[in-house]
């Protein structure tokens, strides 16, 4: 519809209004505040880029950023492998596939906070008792050092997101033409060759979608982080979102936190826009 | 035809949206007039203590019954960070409460222009010596204490008895070490997992409370001095190390992932550890978990310099908003006076809220739990140290807590951990 008449704008108005009041205006305000000495209630001075300069000297922020990047890369890999594996499983001809689909998707419906507490119990109690009973050392003392804190987060995130990503892969897997696979079979291809040369290339578009979904999801994570490790031990598992909240509400440095949030916004925006760009390109190709 | 339909439909949608907003306005204004019906003075109370929300609301209703021209509206938002940010949000949105809570000197500075002088209230006159220090400015008293709280080592008397250790005989850190060794050697027979449960995951337990015992002397027991100090001398850092090491050595491991609920509920209340560093606020939880065990708990101070002084302080203050109307301010003051100085109020403070009173003229026999009683006795004897951690730079307790975690996890030496915390103090206190 090229001609944008009055009804076009009238239809759009509610959404524009909502988007404007809860997203756009706060965003602009936020960017503006990051250049002032705002304390949450009022501001007296315009400080320019000061907050951005201190921000790059802030070791806590750099650590949080680096941890978030590491975490995102690890989760993206684990989630996609798991998601694809689950999708293959539930599109194969096993009997319980419908039940399994539901079961695998279920963790996605549980809130992040609850999941964090559940996994905290599993890591610190269940793992520990198994470790003690069997004498396996690596299962003891989870979440008490930064390595297990890191993997704890990755496991939690993967468990939650894999089911969701599975659904995307299922959609693509079911579109893989059966005659292609049959032809390959007649030509004597083994299951691995079939997967490697036919299925995998055909579900590649799903990988792009899933990768960016998980990447931006992993970047923005807060509640799971809060309930599972709360940044500990010694802030080594603190992610960017949590660092921003802490700066704002624990240290009461609102404008500083706002500057961090702007940087964070830019990073997430770049990730999302790249995704949109790549997807668009692909669509044209097909 | 289609166009016309689309137009009608979209207008309907748009009008619907507009309708929503006007409807809201309507209900809003009717609400206002409902609250202001008659000549009632509405006093909005915004308070943080979730633990006594119901009891407090009941008391407010009781007050309204006695004073029909006053309408007390209580709103509660849970403690810690949430209250501070919610209060901030309330102020920036213009919906300011008449009565609200502030913590230490930091909050006084932040809300200075909204704080009314309360020195003419009866409660201010009755407040115990020292409890008004952080909220006094010249002649003006800007806040009224909620209650007193204290902390130290909460211990299980039964375990001490069975191990043959007399808690009364512990007078120094050496005595405490010996006691811990004795109990540790009999761990199996006593059915203990450890002597201590050190909740190092909660940064405030050691970062604020633990450290306070050893920094109080640096600041003459005054939170105000701490607040004004540009740096932290930390002259007793060595003793602090002994104390941290002692707990860590005999604690259930791993300490850095041990949290408050594990410490109090899972380990102490089930009798699996002999003592924990906490305060009188854990009593209701212990009582809920095991009423029998709760009868046999005691509390002793953290030994510093071979002295046993209980850190006792006022965690929060009531304040009256200076920007509220004249009438509201008067009503708010009258309510707070009634709360702490009338017979009905006193009764509720002791038996319903289960507070350790911060005011004169209370029948202390009515303090029901043993921890509060001990703390009150220490306070009366003047055997206390101040809560200087209320004057720590905002967030510094967390910094120290995180550095201690680093030390406990073996990622930093003691000196590194303390030096990093001192540096951060200098930065935050600017």
Structural overview:
The complex is a heterodimer of chains A (286) and B (430). Helices cover 75% and strands 0% of the residues of chain A. Chain A is mainly α. Chain A has a single domain, classed as Orthogonal Bundle (MetI-like fold). Chain A is globular, with a radius of gyration of 23 Å. In chain A, 34% of the residues are buried. By secondary structure, chain B is α/β, with parallel strands linked by helices. Chain B has 19 helices and 15 strands.
The stretches of 5 or more residues of chain A where confidence is low (pLDDT under 50) are none
Quote the beta fraction of chain A. under 5%
What quaternary form is this?
Answer: heterodimer
Fraction in helix of chain A: over 70%
Number of helices of chain B: 19
Helix/strand structural class of chain B: alpha/beta
CATH homology superfamily of the largest domain in chain B: Periplasmic binding protein-like II
Mean pLDDT of chain B: 84
Mean pLDDT of chain A: 87
Low-confidence stretches of chain B: 21-37
Q: Write the CATH architecture name of the largest domain in chain B.
A: 3-Layer(aba) Sandwich
Q: Structural class from helices and strands of chain A?
A: mainly alpha
CATH topology heading of the largest domain in chain B: D-Maltodextrin-Binding Protein, domain 2
**Overall structural domain count of chain B:** 2
Output the number of helix runs of chain A.
Answer: 11
> Rough shape of chain A?
globular
CATH class membership of the largest domain in chain B: Alpha Beta
The CATH architecture of chain A comes to Orthogonal Bundle
What's the helix and strand layout?
The complex is a heterodimer of chains A (286) and B (430).
Chain A: H1 6-33, H2 50-57, H3 59-91, H4 97-105, H5 112-134, H6 146-173, H7 178-186, H8 191-219, H9 223-228, H10 240-249, H11 254-285
Helix pairs in contact in A: 2-11, 3-4, 3-6, 3-8, 4-6, 6-8, 7-8, 8-11, 10-11
Chain B: H1 2-35, E1 41-47, H2 53-66, E2 70-76, H3 81-93, E3 99-102, H4 105-110, H5 122-126, E4 136-137, E5 140-141, E6 144-145, E7 149-156, H6 157-163, H7 173-185, H8 187-190, E8 194-196, H9 203-215, H10 223-228, H11 237-249, H12 260-268, E9 273-279, H13 283-289, H14 291-294, E10 297-300, E11 303-304, E12 307-308, E13 310-313, E14 317-320, H15 326-341, H16 343-352, H17 370-380, E15 384-385, H18 396-408, H19 414-428
Parallel strand pairs in B: 1-2, 1-3, 8-9, 13-15
Antiparallel strand pairs in B: 3-14, 4-5, 6-14, 7-9, 7-10, 7-13, 11-12
